[in-house]
Write the structure tokens for this entry.
Amino acid sequence: MNPQDQAPVASTVPVKSQQLIGPGELISSSVTFLKKNWKILAGIPASLFVCGFIAVLLLALCAASGLLPLVIIFTILYVAVIIVGGLTVYSAMINAIHRLSTETSPSLTILGQVKFGIKLFWPFLLLMIITGLVTYGSFALFVIPGFIVAVYISTSLFTFIIDGKRGFGALLESCSLVKGRWLATFGRIALLALLCFGVMFGAQITLMLLSILLDVMFPPAVTGIIMAVVIFAVEILMISFAMIYMYKLYVDLKNTRLPDASAASMKPWLIASFILGIIVVLVYIFVVIPLFITGFSQLSQSSRAQQQMLNDPKFKAQMQLLQQQMQAAQQNSSTNSPNPIQQ
């Protein structure tokens, strides 16, 4: 038999499907994952909220006591908790979700995950600065380019934590994953945003209605505490759900990456957006903010000048004299006007 006449042998190499999983499956799998691992995933952001609450409480106590040096110290502490804690929580949660998804029996603790996040603080901060400048610069080119770039780099946090990419490498890897599936990725991210907004809005409306009943049963202070705790719990669960959702989208994009998904063509756009972002920030710092401060200062000086003029005794005397003259003129006018009955 001629070798050319032989039937072709089917390839045993599996071909990846380039179709992303549906939004419904993405939501249901994320909810299932959260139900199974809610303790560790909710505990990580809860630790940040607790630290922030303690810092705010100490700040309020110092402000009430009039201790200005301690107020400054605890204000700096609160800002540090928000910045360091926020980046730490992101790193810790992404790593926890990845380990829970890939390891058979991972041994995770909140403290261990926080330590992991702290180790990556500085490179993560650098990535956030680069991402912020790229996003800011792209939005400065009008809204549509900003949305396009934002979706392309939407998985850069995961390429940083999981794939070990650093700086622009994390952004380029994210662009490579999204390439060819921008619209599908945008739709899934938009769905997540709408879902989170709907849940939070629904929780707020429900609590507003329940507050009527709670005010009857409890004092106003207790009602406020109950509502704050419920909103706090809903926010933590939604943060955890959003992180799981985005992780699963990242994994799906990675498993269905296009064969020719090179992000080299995106690099000039990212660099241009980054440079433009720096320019815009500098313009705000050295032009917009000084103009705003100057305008506010001039407005304050004008207001003070008007106040001083109103408090000037000479001005008050002139106003009183003018008022007396107007009253006298009105009296003369009413006296000299003919009486219709007499006519």
The CA atoms of residues 218 and 306 lie 49 Å apart. Residues 1-15 have pLDDT under 50 and may be disordered.
